[in-house]
Amino acid sequence: MAEQEKGKKSRPGKSPSKGGKGPASPFDHHGSKQEAASKEERLTLVFHALGDPSRRQIIDLLRESPALKVGNIAAAFEMSLNGVSKHIKVLERAGLVVRHVEGRDHFLAVNWPTLELVSEWLDFYRQFWSGRLDNLEEVLKKRNEE
Amino acid sequence: MKTQLSLEVKRKIPAPRQAVFEAWLDADTLAKFMLPGKGMTSTAVCNPKVGGKYEIIMKAGDQEIPHEGEYRIIDRFEKLAFTWVSAYTQPDSLVTLTFKELGPEETEVTLYHENFPNEESRTNHEGGWAEILEILEEVLLKS
Fold first, then answer.
1. Which residue, of B24, B45, B98, B141, has the greatest Cβ tally within 10 A?
2. Do strands A68-69 and A105-110 pair parallel, antiparallel, or not at all (unpaired)?
3. Could you say which DSSP state residue A17 is in?
4. Interval A5-44: pLDDT, tens
5. Which among B86, B90, B121 has the least Cβ separation from residue A51?
């Protein structure tokens, strides 16, 4: 039997800021810890951005078209240009939409890779919890048999 | 047509509802099933009351991955909710479990994991998941 590394002391897993708290990141398999951390940070922005119903509506509208002008978006929601612009800034900062300027027109489009990030998060946790519930079943089964 | 993407996991567990419920509030049991993977171990402490905290430390090799949260709802033996704190992201997420008795030795557990982008949505319980899921459905259909 291969020798286990029993000599090594366990030390807390490193984390970027909050003193080592939290589960393995869903993005851990993406190369460096920095990459994983930055994806998680982006996800925070994304969840915040999608937390507002108006912004979700804007995304909804955008995904139906290849690109839309800011003015058209405002018109669709009967929202002031100022109001829409504020929301769009949040969406841009989260990487959910991309802006393309042509002369004086600003076109916006959904940035699909960012939405895929959310999908990754969901996949990770779906698998994570699935595994834990499997374990729970095992543990309770064993207990019953004792 | 959005249900396939919801972060909801269901399981039928051949054990009484009370046992399945209490498993989430017992440190020894938590340590046994909240394992990061085969051949790994976990330790846990918990204060099983509303506002009480739990901590689970998953050990993979010589790395320790601590994890913690707070119990929000303890509704014996139907519903349990606790926060799940991520190292990197500011907003906590919330895990909600419901337990349905299918028989004296069979329980259906439904686990729902949602993210709260801001304090407001947490209070209003507006996770916004329904809309997010519609968007994602399209992403997956495209790929």
1. B24
2. antiparallel
3. S
4. 333 333 333 333 333 334 456 666 656 767 776 777 788 7
5. B121
CA pair distance A126, B95, nearest whole angstrom: 12
pLDDT digits (tens, 9 = 90+) for A96-118: 999 999 999 889 999 988 878 87
Query: Which member of A23, A126, A134 has the closest CB to residue B7?
Result: A126
User: What are the tokens at A84?
Assistant: 């829409």
Amino acid (one-letter) located at A146: E
The pTM of the whole model exceeds 0.80: no
Taking an 8 Å cut-off on Cβ atoms, the answer to whether A48 and B118 are in contact is: yes
Residue (of B103, B102, B56) closest to A13 by Cα position: B56
**CB contact B27 to A (< 8 Å):** no
Residue A56 and residue A126: Cα distance in Å, rounded?
23
Contact A47, B121 (CB under 8 A): no
The pair of structure tokens assigned to B49 is: 């009351």
Selection from A26, A83, A67 nearest residue B88 by Cα: A26
Strands of the sheet containing A97-102, edge to edge, are A68-69, A105-110, A97-102
Pairing of strands B63-75, A11-12: parallel
